[in-house]
Amino acid sequence: MAQEVRGVIAPGKDEPVRIETIVVPDPGPGEAVVRVQACGVCHTDLHYKQGGISDDFPFLLGHEAAGVVEAVGDGVTDVEPGDFVILNWRAVCGKCRACLRGRPWYCFDTHNAGQKMTLSDGTELSPALGIGAFAEKTLVAAGQCTKVDPAVAPQVAGLLGCGVMAGIGAAINTGNVGRGDTVAVIGCGGVGDAAIAGSHLAGAAKIIAVDIDDRKLETARTMGATHTVNSRETDPVEAIRELTGGFGADVVIEAVGRPETYKQAFYARDLAGTVVLVGVPTPEMKLELPLLDVFGRGGALKSSWYGDCLPSRDFPMLIDLHLQGRLDLGAFVTETIQLDEVEKAFERMHHGDVLRSVVVL
Ligand code: APR
Ligand code: ZN
Ligand code: ZN
């Protein structure tokens, strides 16, 4: 029997979000219904609402979530009702070329639920990133559920489902930050701060936080930054070089997604260092760099999608480290809110007032 629950939809381009009744079908083969306990508010939800991702309105928003599996369809063996899970938007197929080469974090054919959730009049919903978790329950592919230790608070666990994993993964997976490395992070929102926390966890010797907002730099310190640079006042490339003995950082993580900050990252790294782009640019942005500098400076220019994470490998490990007190995921939760406060949370996010607002259900 399909169920009716409350959920937050974006009805049309730039229209305010609203709460609607959502019809959640019973899970079919390979699917799971999850009772959502917490879901963070991410920029991507706002981009969906603004029509910046696609025109497939109405969207069921929310994708940074944790909850409890309520029911599973035929053939589901990895999770069962009662399991505490973090939802992911990278349910790998296990069969594509990337998966077969042993690099499933590049999977080309990730899974979502086959059936559609709808409004009560039958209008099909497009769930944000194939999840749609600003709702009391949601239907996903079973592979989108990653079981973790239930001792963690849901509002903390859910964060790993998107932005915080993207940042931590940019440092530890894509950037391969290791003990003794020098790291600079440009842009200290939720993603940049997570890159700082990840670098700290990985044993970086120096972590330089760069932002144009002093409030953000203060928070960055609590996440593990050893130095801060306000790039409105100080040239960040020179400052980073100065702080690293004149060399530049081993790894520079760009967590803004703009050509000018990418250029700063490019020139702020040491010879043969690594640049990681985790900030998401918009389609019209172009980058111009002397090709000779790209050649002459060597090293690696990498992009990080979802922190190059493999949910089944990374989520349980990071939750365990959190529970051991070695990774303060709770520090990313600025406030917990109700389902009907998502619109307000978008505004606060827009003004840079929060790292994460998390809807608790
Ligand atoms: N130089 C340095 N920092 C900047 C600049 C700049 N020119 N412009 C903006 N910032 C800072 C902001 O002050 C803010 O602290 O970058 C940070 C961006 O943070 P958020 O807006 O909170 O975004 P976040 O959720 O961290 O995501 C950052 O990663 O996943 C992507 O889509 C996401 O592109 C976005 C980026
Ligand atoms: Zn695959
Ligand atoms: Zn997100």
TrEMBL record:
Q: Name one GO molecular function term.
A: zinc ion binding
| Domain Cytochrome c, residue spans | 25-139
The family database entries (PROSITE patterns) matched by this protein are listed as: ADH_ZINC, CYTC
Cofactor(s) demanded? Zn(2+)
Q: Give the family this protein belongs to, as stated in its UniProt record.
A: Belongs to the zinc-containing alcohol dehydrogenase family.
List keywords of the entry alphabetically.
Answer: Heme, Iron, Metal-binding, Oxidoreductase, Zinc
Q: Which organism is it from?
A: Streptomyces afghaniensis 772
InterPro entries from the UniProt entry: ADH-like_C, ADH-like_N, ADH_Zn_CS, Cyt_c-like_dom, ER, GroES-like_sf, MycoS_dep_FDH, NAD(P)-bd_dom_sf
**What protein name does the entry list?**
Putative S-(Hydroxymethyl)mycothiol dehydrogenase
